[in-house]
């Protein structure tokens, strides 16, 4: 799967991050990875408009988004998943465009602005078109497909509501809802033709205009948003199947009364979520999948500069007096903490000053002071060796975070926004 979040990270920053977390040479990692098949990946594909794309004012084609989809990826890691994200949100996309886009992906036909949605101006569209086959493969392999769509269809209402009578507004809403239902149903059918079993979650359409800004139109706009939520619920119920659910992420109710802090107001009909807004949308999606939205305990600290690095192992945040240690730009953990969190077995050999860990059919030997570890008898070079550190009266073995992960085949991911490393089976 093409992980767009990772692809948009500056290359130098990514290499530095990889060196910091993995602490292994590329050949060594590849050799170890070939020995044992990797566990199944929880693939996430985000489709739809600028909300899926994570757009905020001032972003450029080289910007790294941090929207709801990127947060959903973090939540997958937080819930113990080996996960990847393919984010294919398109700026300005409408429901008719989503219908055409999914049909083109399904049928393998050319993706162009004219064929998808005339006048669409997302500068990334040519790059999306060039990897249409990969997009189809990502959708086919996905466990979760998320969609935000409809905002560009109804944006005209934000200006028109104040001038329309209640009857005329209701008639216009019903007209838009009919087109919305028809287009989104067709798009879902296209996706089901590619992937019959993925969970699909579509967000309802939140009302972004604050009451202070909307004035007397606020009640009308809230009524229109409620109608869209009802239509989305009916649509999802009509197409959901046993083993292939279509669910609704109810974002609209979370924005009600909080629009001013959750949206950027760019123009009369151009609104986009703030970072707090994207977190709010991410919570709506996450709770449909896993029931709870998690953040590191360190986020209770007032200042981000004071937050220590958090380690989450197999969905559990490590809470131990043996704090992570940074040496030569790499993170080390106390071996006993990792073994306990992963349910791995281990033993210490005083004669050789080495620890042997057994997990998932693999055996890894880590020797204090050695720049190689043995994974099923094969040497893997590491930049910084394991060491002993005295904590109180006991000496604890500290090992490079991802050297162990590489040897045992764990998945190691890092979120700079959360200052958190995730280790999953």
From TrEMBL:
InterPro entries: Cu_amine_oxidase-like_N, GDSL, Mao_N_sf, SGNH_hydro_sf. Residues 312-423 form the Copper amine oxidase-like N-terminal domain. Keywords: Signal. Residues 1-31 form the signal peptide. Pfam families: Cu_amine_oxidN1, Lipase_GDSL. The keyword ATP-binding does not apply. One of its GO terms (molecular function) is hydrolase activity, acting on ester bonds. This is Copper amine oxidase domain-containing protein.
């Amino acid at each position: 799967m093409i992980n767009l979040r990772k692809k948009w990270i500056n290359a130098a920053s990514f290499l530095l991050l990889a060196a910091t977390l993995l602490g292994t040479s590329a050949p060594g990692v590849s050799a170890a990875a070939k020995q044992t098949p990797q566990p199944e990946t929880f693939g996430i594909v985000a489709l739809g408009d600028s909300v899926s794309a994570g757009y905020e004012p001032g972003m450029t084609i080289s910007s790294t988004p941090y929207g709801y989809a990127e947060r959903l990826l973090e939540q997958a890691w937080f819930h113990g998943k080996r996960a990847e994200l393919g984010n294919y949100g398109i700026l300005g996309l409408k429901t008719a465009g989503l219908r055409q886009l999914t049909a083109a992906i399904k049928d393998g036909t050319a993706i162009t602005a004219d064929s998808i949605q005339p006048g669409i101006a997302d500068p990334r569209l040519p790059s999306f078109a060039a990897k249409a086959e990969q997009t189809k493969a990502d959708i086919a392999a996905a466990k979760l497909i998320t969609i935000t769509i409809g905002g560009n269809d109804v944006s005209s209402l934000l200006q028109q509501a104040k001038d329309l009578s209640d009857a005329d507004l209701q008639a216009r809403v019903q007209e838009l809802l009919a087109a919305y239902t028809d287009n989104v149903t067709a798009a879902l059918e296209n996706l089901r033709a590619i992937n019959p079993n993925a969970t699909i979650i579509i967000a309802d359409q939140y009302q972004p205009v604050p009451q202070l800004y909307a004035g007397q139109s606020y009640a009308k706009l809230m009524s229109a948003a409620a109608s869209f939520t009802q239509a989305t619920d009916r649509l999802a119920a009509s197409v959901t199947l046993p083993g292939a659910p279509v669910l609704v992420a109810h974002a609209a109710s979370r924005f009600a009364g909080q629009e001013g802090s959750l949206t950027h107001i760019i123009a009369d009909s151009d609104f986009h979520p703030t970072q707090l807004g994207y977190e709010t949308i991410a919570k709506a999606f996450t709770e449909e999948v896993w029931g709870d939205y998690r953040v590191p305990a360190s986020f209770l600290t007032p200042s981000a500069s004071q937050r220590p690095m958090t380690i989450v192992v197999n969905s559990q945040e490590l809470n131990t007096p043996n704090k992570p240690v940074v040496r030569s730009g790499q993170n080390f953990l106390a071996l006993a903490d990792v073994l306990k969190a992963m349910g791995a077995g281990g033993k210490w050999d005083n004669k050789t000053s080495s620890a042997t860990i057994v997990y998932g059919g693999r055996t890894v030997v880590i020797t204090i002071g050695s720049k190689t570890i043995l994974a099923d008898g094969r040497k893997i070079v590491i930049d910084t060796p394991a060491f002993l550190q005295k904590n109180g009266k006991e000496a604890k073995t500290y090992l490079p975070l991802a050297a162990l992960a590489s040897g045992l085949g764990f998945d190691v991911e890092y979120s700079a926004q959360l200052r958190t490393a995730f280790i999953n089976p």
